[in-house]
Each structure stands twice: as C-alpha cells, then as structure tokens.
Amino acid sequence: MTIQHLLVPLTGHAGDAAALDAALRVAQRFDASVEVLSLRPDPQRVLAYTGAEMAVATSMLLEGAEKASNEVAARNRAVYEAAKAETGAGPEVEFREDTGSETAAVARRGAVADLIVTPGPGQDPNASRTVLEAALFETGRGVLIVPGPVAEDFAERILVAWDGGKEASRSVAAALPFLEAATAVSVYTRDEGEDRCTAAELVRYLSRHGAPANRIADADPKQPVDAAILAAAQRADAGLIVMGGYSHSRFREMILGGVTEHMLFHADRPVLMEH
C-alpha cells in the first residue's frame, strides 16, 4: 500500500496554504500527485432564500454573492499558484474548480484520492466545518488535518493514539505508508477494553510491516485523554498523530465535547484520522 494521489480542498480561508504545503511534502515523499480542489460558493443559491416579489433585493444579493464567490476563487487560485511556484518541478499538481455543494464535491473527488488534506478548524473561526466533515464522513478515506505550517520531516516520528476500536484501526490502515516510512512509532493507549485489540498486539502488527513501533507509557492516568494524547506526542517528539475520528456520535461529541472535537481544535501538530 502506498499513497499515489492526494486531494486538497480549498475554501478561501486561513489555513489553506499550510494544508497544501503539507500535502506537497507528502506527495514529494511518496512520489504522488496532488489535486487542488477550489470550492467556490454558487451565487445562484441566494435565490433560494428570496421571493419573486423581492426582485430588487434579489438582484443586489446576487451581485454580492457573485462578488464573494469570485473573491474565494481568486484566493484559492493564488494559494495554488504560490505553491506551484515554490515547488517548481516537484510533484504533479492539478487544479480543479467546483461551484456548488461543498459536501458533494468533496465526497465525489475524495472517493478517488488516497488521502485528503484539510486545515484544522481552529485556524479560522469563519471557516465552515462542511469540508472537514464531508472528508471524514462521506469519503471513507483517511484525512490529514493540518493545524498550521509543518516541518519537512513532520511524519518522521509518529504517535498512534490507540483504543482498539474500528475507527482507530481504520486510521492505522490509512496511515500505514507513513508508519512504514517512519523512523519511530510510539503507541499510546489509555483504555483498551477487554474485547479489543491491545496496544501490544498493535505493536506486533506494525512491526510486521517494518514500522519501528514501541509502546509509550501513560504518564498521568488522571489526565483527560485528549490532553494525555498531546502530552504523549510531545514526549515522543512526534510530528504526526494517528487516531480514530468520532468513536462516539458526531452530535454527542460536538455538543457534550469529546476527544475528537478537542483534537480538531487544539492539536498543535497534524492529525491523521478516519471515521
């Protein structure tokens, strides 16, 4: 298994450039191609919220929506052009534009990508979660969530946050190319459960794939799990965290809080997850 093609959806918000830069670094490492998907709002959607009797207001709203859509498209193109100029004769990069439903576009293009790369939602309070949620819930692919600029060797040392569940297992499978190429892999667990695959079994599995895996101890069992994962990554000097996404319902985690929600907004290094 390897990574041959990455998808990077752009929405014109802060964090797009860092996500594309991380994708290009991954592509360089695995000799893969990158598809830049420029998502621009459909100005015609404004008509769905106005009546025929509001012709003047509708015209003004449509004009404003078209201007906003063009501005998003211009920002996306600028991010792409800047990245392309910096990489030069680097990985193959394709630019594609889509106007309309972000969810549908990401689901459609993500289905034929090996990895989807998006900014972390904590970077821009105005950014929609639509793209990230579409990548996680509509594609069946691994998603690399980038909280900011990354080092060239950010995936050399990796922490796997393991609970033995199917989401964690899927995330490990999606991350295998990274894990096999890493110089160090640390496996952290808090509560494996009686009927779940243990951290020791995961270490043996990763070793069969040539990954230099070892278990890292839980320094403070009383610490909240999300904070403990970040602390373990710090101790392991890991530039990438691999973990399952939304083991509980998305609604429950968003409303009541959960490990995934905390990691999405507060992780200080890239996180690769799959639901």
Automatic annotation (TrEMBL):
CDD domains: USP-like. Gene3D superfamilies: 3.40.50.12370. It comes from the Bacteria. Transmembrane segments: none annotated. Residues 3-122, 223-273 form the UspA domain. Belongs to the universal stress protein A family. This is UspA domain-containing protein.
